Structure formats: structure tokens, C-alpha cells
TrEMBL record:
Topology versus the membrane: Multi-pass membrane protein
Residues annotated as transmembrane: 63-84, 105-123, 200-222, 229-247
GO cellular component: endoplasmic reticulum membrane
GO MF annotations, alphabetized: coenzyme A diphosphatase activity
Signal peptide range: 1-39
Protein name from the UniProt record: FITM2 protein
Highest rank taxon of the organism: Eukaryota
Pfam families recorded: FIT (PF10261)
Sorted UniProt keywords: Endoplasmic reticulum, Hydrolase, Lipid metabolism, Membrane, Signal, Transmembrane, Transmembrane helix
Keyword Endoplasmic reticulum: yes
A biological process term (GO) from this entry: phospholipid biosynthetic process
Listed HAMAP family: FITM2
């Protein structure tokens, strides 16, 4: 448990800060430009990460929202409940309602993920054409979707907005925002809840590192520059519209730390 506490303390000092929250969107945009420059300049070495079947892509990125959702679910629920009890001196019922309100941010995130990915698919289908090896003998055949094209061993050529750049940027920014609740949370070092929260926090930190690393790999190995930039901009726009605009309003899931969109308070997780 001491190692977990030490690891959590080190990660908090580096990730749960206002500076990280300010600079992270610019870092992600910078990675798009850097990765695209390396790719276009053919300066990228051959590594297992250029294979779409690599372990991190198959078991993490392909289900990125599921990983983000199921780790944030207990983290937001527990920390929001404790925050409401300690800071607002709410009773159990009001604290549960406060936690449920904050958990609705995950429903918002799910809606953002679903709408944007469906929109990307629609745009790719709308702008694409199918090339097949049997084009000369089957010129009458017309494929209107990427799925139909692939089903007939064709190659679909459309504007493929990078879903990876969108989702990884959005998940990364969302996790970092939600972890700021620790700035205003006080829990006894000997509490079992502290162990649970530390475990969830460390897991979320490592997940964030995976998302940033895979974001970089996406910019280096896949998609055109415009596709990656647009995907990242959609992710940043979704984060900004929620955590910087909507969540400041009364009728919203609210911020992890109320009325402090860029908190600079000293971390107060222990007492």
C-alpha cells in the first residue's frame, strides 16, 4: 500500500495541476503537426505500432471509450459523493444526488462519442468511392458504403476523419478534468476508501499515458494531416463545449470542483 500511496502522490503532483490542464490541448495539437511532419518526411522507423493489429490498438484503443467509461464511473461516483459530504455537509441522500449529477457527465461523453463517430462514418460514406479488382466486369455494381465495399473485397476511398485522434484526445482531456476533484478532497490516510481512490487514480493516469502514446502513434503512422487535425479539433471542441462552457451552467452535470474551471488550489487529498 505504501508503494501505491507513493505512486499516487507522484502522479498527482505532475498531472493534477492547472498547468497540465492548460497545456494539454496544445500538446495534443502539437503532436498532430509533429507526427504528420515525420510521416510526410518519411522519417518514421518501422515498429510494431504501425501494424493495426498491435496489442494496444486491439485491446485498448478499439474500445477506448469503454476503458474510459468503466474507470471513471467508480472514480467519479465515489469522489463526488465524498466531496459533497465533506465540502457541502450534505446528508447521504443529497450526496448521492450530487454524485449522480456528476456521473451524468459520462452519459454526455457517451452521446458525444456516439454522435461524432456516426458522423465520421457518414462523411466517409458520403465522400467515398469503391475500387474493386472486378471493376471492368462489374461496372454496373455500385457500393454506397464502406462496409459493402469491403464485403466485396474492395478498397473504399473517402475522407476518413481520424476517429482515433478524436476519441483519444477527448478521453484524455476528460480524464484529466475529472481528476481535479482530488484538489479539494480530504481523506484519512488509513481509510480503505483512500486505497480504492488511489487505485482508480493510478489506473486512470496510466490509461491517460496510453491514450497520449497511441495518439502520437496515430499521427505518425496513419491518416492524412487534414484527417488527423480535424479529428483532434472535434475532440478538443467537444471537451471545450462541455467542461469550459456547458458545465459552468446551473443545469448541467457541473464541474468536478464547482466554480473552479482552472483551479490553482494546493492539492489537499490527505489530512
Amino acid at each position: 500500500m505504501e508503494r501505491l500511496e507513493w505512486c499516487s502522490r507522484c502522479l498527482r503532483a505532475r498531472l493534477v495541476t492547472a498547468a497540465v490542464r492548460r497545456r494539454l490541448p496544445w500538446l495534443l495539437l502539437g503532436l498532430v503537426f509533429l507526427g504528420s511532419a515525420l510521416k510526410d518526411g518519411e522519417l518514421v522507423p518501422d515498429t510494431p505500432m504501425q501494424n493495426k493489429r498491435n496489442v494496444l490498438n486491439v485491446y485498448f484503443v478499439k474500445v477506448a471509450w469503454a476503458w474510459t467509461f468503466w474507470l471513471l464511473l467508480p472514480f467519479i461516483g465515489i469522489t463526488s459523493y465524498l466531496f459533497a459530504r465533506s465540502k457541502f455537509i450534505y446528508g447521504p441522500t443529497k450526496s448521492i444526488l450530487a454524485a449522480l449529477r456528476r456521473l451524468s457527465a459520462l452519459l454526455v461523453g457517451t452521446a458525444v462519442w456516439y454522435v461524432c463517430t456516426e458522423l465520421f462514418v457518414y462523411i466517409e460514406n458520403l465522400t467515398g468511392t469503391c475500387s474493386t479488382s472486378s471493376e471492368l466486369s462489374e461496372t454496373h455494381q455500385l457500393y454506397t458504403t464502406k462496409q459493402d465495399c469491403h464485403r466485396n473485397n474492395g478498397i473504399w476511398n473517402g475522407f476518413d476523419i481520424s476517429g482515433h485522434c478524436f476519441l483519444l484526445s477527448y478521453c484524455t482531456l476528460m480524464i484529466v478534468e475529472e481528476m481535479t476533484v482530488l484538489e479539494g478532497l480530504s481523506i484519512d490516510r488509513n481509510s480503505r476508501l483512500r486505497v480504492v481512490i488511489n487505485s482508480l487514480f493510478v489506473s486512470l493516469c496510466f490509461l491517460t499515458m496510453i491514450w497520449v502514446f497511441m495518439f502520437l502513434c496515430t499521427t505518425v503512422y496513419f491518416h492524412d494531416f487534414s484527417q488527423k487535425l480535424l479529428g483532434a479539433l472535434v475532440g478538443l471542441a467537444a471537451w471545450y463545449a462541455t467542461y469550459r462552457v456547458w458545465y459552468l451552467k446551473p443545469f448541467s452535470p457541473g464541474l468536478p470542483l464547482p466554480n473552479t474551471p482552472l483551479s490553482s488550489k494546493k492539492y489537499s487529498y490527505s489530512r
